[in-house]
Amino acid sequence: MFKDISRRNLLRGFSISAGLVTVATAQQVHEAVTEQKQTDQGFTLKAFNPHEFKTLQCLSDLIVPADEHSPGALAAHAAEWIDYMAGNCPELAEIFTGGLAWLDHEMQRRYGADFVDAKPEEQAAMLDLIASQKNEAPENAPGIHFFRWARNLVLDAYYTSPIGIKELGYMGNTAVSEFHVPEEVLQYALKRSPFA
Amino acid sequence: MLQIQRSAEVHDVVVIGSGAGGGTVTKVLTDAGINVTLLEAGPMLHPMTDFKEHVWPYQVDHRGAGPHAETYFGKSPWGFGYFTAPAGNWTLEGEPYTVAEGSQFKWWRARIMGGRTNHYGRISLRFSDYDFKPYSFDGLGTDWPVSYDEMSPYYDKAEGFIGVTGTKEGLRTAPDGKFLPPIAPRVHETLIQKACQRLNIPCIPSRMAMLTKPLNGRAACHYCGQCGRGCHTASAFTSSQAMIFPAMKTGKLKAITGAMARELVTDADGQVSAVSYVEKATRAEKKIRCRAVVVAASACESARLLLNSKSPRFPNGIANSSGMIGRNLTDTTGYDLSGYVPALANLPRHNSDGIGGMHVYVPWWLLDDKKKDFPRGYHIEVGGGFDMPQIGYFHGADGYGSALKSRIREEYGAWVGFSGRGEMIPNANSYCEIDTGTVDQWGIPVLRFHFRWTEHEINQVHHMHDTFSSIIEAMGGKPEKKPFPTRGADAMSIGGEIIHEAGTVRMHDDPKQGPLNRWCQAHEVKNLFVADAAPFLGNPDKNVTLTIVALAWRTAEYLAEEMRKGNV
Fold it and tell me: Taking CB atoms and an 8 Å cutoff, what residues of chain A touch B61?
């Protein structure tokens, strides 16, 4: 049987037993590396214009939507994070501004509307084209290339956020006094393995 | 005009380098009451601010991608990622090296107090009896001047001090030691053990330098799986926290950081009289006199220092009349293969962190097989479980939408990985020498590397691929399709990538076959010792660090005794 120790209690315990960690300095560490940006209040765009940002938000919502399991990339502020990163990296900004422009141009050509204004089935048709490696062809190459970047960054933003970590179900990065695997989990795997 | 600041003070022992070897020598000597002056090229380590364990990716603005999205464009300055404990890299600003035409080599430098021990994998395996007498065993390589029996008491001391988990198994290829309690296998590791059992491959509890019980004032592990990031509680071994910091409290240690050793100066009798180094902050030249010097700068860096220490008596570098310094460069072989295991799909979530590394491993099992097409062997490291999500974790996914979310959820924790780490037989085409045409930012001539794998290593890696595929299939899984070769020298690690360099300043009873004697003392310069992996005569399928500590311990005890007797 193992017991979960909250990080605060852990650090307090160690300050007594090991003499190597004090609660005050440990909190200083986390303050030094922690910068919580509240993106809900007063978010200022750094790399994209409002239209580009709105398109990126739309795209992120389609890549990782909210569903019955969990909130999606919108709630996880994926577009805000990509804008922040692009603001510090011109090469990244170019990939996105270029790719978003390509996307709008293609949508205009096919459906007479920008990506954000197109019908859901039109948006889906475009994504079905550029979201899959198997559709690789010269005319689709820019779209496939851009979508790969967009998907990678949206997935990165989502799964490194509290929402994404919870959706995955990661339960680590904590402190326990003993390592233990729940028996029912082991049985789950064994039953479905060649060793049942 | 160079201003060399000389000091009149004669230091007892100058130790160059603060990693596994330098840390051990510093501890043993200061424990014996001997004054040590330690030169470390990097800065001091401050665990509280340098180690990023327990930091969630979202607690950093860039989430680990780098402030300028470096990792997305292959420009990451961090060898193993932003969150890893302070490490060096294979490329260091101002510290170049060259590689000969037709060779491939990557040279890691860790520049911080504690060196590579701050970020290493902590796999702690004793060399076997035959590893010390390889030529006697099968006619390849060169016998060491020491045997396993002579090293065993020092392995006892090393394990006893560091704290190594494990179980007694009675396997010749995995000599038993003094172990702390092992850690229970994770779910994927239990499946791997069962698959191995079907294939008659041993898969035993791993031997890791993480504490499952408190030891020497270091707290027991709290199983957060983040050892690679550094450990505030020193539950994972580092020479900085376990050896250097306590040595500082003895009052016998003077640690000088930001000090790049330039050369060893000899007197009229051919003994080391002083160490010349660069104070990096000011670029001032300093010279400190010493009674003895222990060089532990890592195998190639130690060879470089000796080769650059030229004098009329030693035109090819101090203690190098044999011409052997720099020769017989080796690194561990490396090969990885992953697989998807359906039995682990949608695995019920639980905390699988454990220690930051494998809880089980496979020691070499075909030692007596005469039919295989390569000598010696390799061990297998395993990976899997629920990792903390990081940047890049889901790159390469296909599709989008709820289907993508669902697939990611299903596959999380269902991938297993195998890494082979095998023996390299020293060869005549693998060595380092001074590139006289190139200097680093302090004017110190750099190393030029020559390196080549032979059929021994290439065939060994083919065997790894086939074995890993078999294990994955025996678990009901499917090996990944690799986008790059699975055969030939291109399939395996580049020399230096595994960061286990050894052999460049050999120990041997015959001065013509090795610059050092059986005590890692230079034959020609009695007050010069080497205490990293440079003295090794081979590079077996057991990671080098535990043996570095054991050998350095033995060297330090010998040095202390020789000083007590007045011989040094």
Answer: 35, 37, 84
Distance CA B145, CA A12 (A): 50
Q: Give just the sign of the alpha carbon dihedral B492, B496, B500, B506.
A: positive
Beta bridge partners of B11: B290
Identify all chain B residues contacting A132, using CB atoms and an 8 Å cutoff.
398-399
Query: Using one digit for the tens of pLDDT, what is the confidence trace for B94-135?
Result: 999 999 999 999 999 999 999 999 999 999 999 999 999 999
Q: B-chain residues within 8 Å CB-CB of A182?
A: 348, 350
Among B200, B294, B341, which residue's Cα sits nearest to residue B525?
A: B294
- Smallest CA-to-CA distance from B257 within B37, B91, B95 is with B37
Is B191's CB within 8 Å of A193's CB?
yes
Q: CB neighbours (10 Å) of residue B252?
A: 17
d(C-alpha B253, C-alpha B35), whole Å: 6
Report d(CA B394, CA B213) in Å as an integer. 36
Residue A181: pLDDT over 80:
yes
Tell me the helix, strand and coil percentages in chain A, rounded to 5: 60, 0, 35
| Contact criterion met (CB below 8 Å) for B338 and B480 | yes
Q: What CA–CA distance (Å, rounded) separates B97 from B92?
A: 9
* DSSP string covering A65-77: ---SS---TTTTT
Question: At CA B452, angle to CA B450 and CA B457, rounded to 5?
Answer: 150
Q: Which of A1, A147, A142, A6 is nearest to B399 (CA)?
A: A147
What are the pLDDT digits (tens) for A128-167?
A: 999 987 877 888 899 999 999 999 999 999 999 999 999 9
CB pairs under 8 A between A and B: 231
Q: Is A112 helix (H, G, I), strand (E, B) or coil?
A: coil
Supply angle C-alpha B361, B365, B370, rounded to 5: 155
Outline where DSSP puts E strands in B40-185.
98-99
Is B275 in a helix, a strand, or coil? strand
Helices (H) and strands (E) in chain B, counts: 12, 16
- Cα dist from B306 to A49, A76, B320, B501, B522, whole Å: 59, 56, 8, 16, 11
At B523-533, the pLDDT tens digits run 999 999 999 99
Amino acid at A132: S
Nearest-by-CA chain A residue for B197: A195
Q: How many angstroms separate the CA atoms of A49 and A61, rounded? A: 18
For B125, B159, B163, B361, B490, the CA distances from B166, given in Å and listed in that order, are 10, 11, 10, 11, 34
CB B45 within 8 A of CB B258: no
The model's pLDDT over B439-463, given as tens digits with 9 standing for 90+, comes to 999 999 999 999 999 999 999 999 9
* Distance of alpha carbon B401 from alpha carbon A127, whole angstroms: 10
Instruction: Check if the beta carbon of residue B355 is closer than 8 Å to that of residue B438.
Output: no
Interface of A with B in 133-172 (CB under 8 A): 133, 151-152, 155-157, 159-162, 164-165, 167-172
Q: Which residue of A has its CA nearest to B394?
A: A155
Quickly count helices (H) and strands (E) in chain A: 9, 2
**φ and ψ at residue A64, rounded to 5 degrees:** -130, 85
Contact between A33 and B393 using a beta-carbon 8 Å cutoff: no
A9 in contact with chain B, both atoms CB, cutoff 8 A: no
ipTM for the predicted complex comes to: 0.92
